[in-house]
Amino acid sequence: MPRVSQDQLDARRREILTGARTCFARHGYEGATVRRLEEEIGLSRGAIFHHFRDKDSLFLAVAEDDAATMVATVAQHGLVQVMRDLLARTEPDVTGWLGSQLEVSRRLRTDPEFAKRWAARSEAVAAATRERLQRQLEAGVLRADVPIGILAQFLELAYDGLVLHLATGRPVQDLEAVLNLVEAAVRRQ
């Protein structure tokens, strides 16, 4: 029997996460049955659950993957860049991503165990935002008259508003100008 390389395992895992993200976005957590996951991913339940313990672990992996991508972008380019990247996404990528964000939000409100496990991921995004703002302050490009914690909350609220705006299917016209305004609001004048 031939050995499977780590690259092949990683590629299969990414394939599963991509299909699962779409399935969770389309059907919600409860509606993403194992049968639907199999159809969307194009693999058997055995192949899927060889990589993930159960559906809950699979959903958490999708959400963690999205959060890790977000933390990396925030750390390097800031939260406004995450918002710009969100605007630049195309269907079905944006639908899948938004669906998992909304499902995370729902589960944070309704599933205390999930909320407890998710707290570290939320803090990672918040910490990356604060650290990025601190570096910008030290570089002299960030306004100094408002505490970093307040600026971080402002950016997080703008991000949450953008996610809601896109999730409800509202028009995306002029949102780049809105993001320019958000960015200008935190910059030194």
Short summary:
With 189 residues, the protein is an all-alpha fold.
Q: What's the number of structural domains?
A: 1
Which percent range fits the helix content? over 70%
Largest sheet: none
Task: Report the radius of gyration as a whole number of Å.
Answer: 18 Å
Please state the oligomeric state of the protein chains shown.
Answer: single chain
What is the class in the CATH system?
A: Mainly Alpha
Per the principal axes of the C-alpha atoms, what is the gross shape?
elongated
Beginning-to-end CA distance, first to last residue: 65 Å
The CATH homologous superfamily is called Tetracycline Repressor, domain 2
Secondary-structure arrangement, i.e. CATH architecture: Orthogonal Bundle
pLDDT < 50 runs, ≥5 residues:
none
Q: How much is the average pLDDT?
A: 88
The secondary-structure class comes to mainly alpha
Instruction: List the secondary-structure elements in sequence, H or E.
Output: HHHHHHHHH
The CATH topology corresponds to Tetracycline Repressor, domain 2
Percent strand equals: under 5%
Number of helices: 9
| Total count of strands | 0
InterPro entries: DNA-bd_HTH_TetR-type_CS, Homeodomain-like_sf, HTH-type_TetR-like_transc_reg, HTH_TetR, Tet_transcr_reg_TetR-rel_C_sf
Protein name: TetR family transcriptional regulator
Organism: Dactylosporangium sucinum
Pfam families: TetR_N
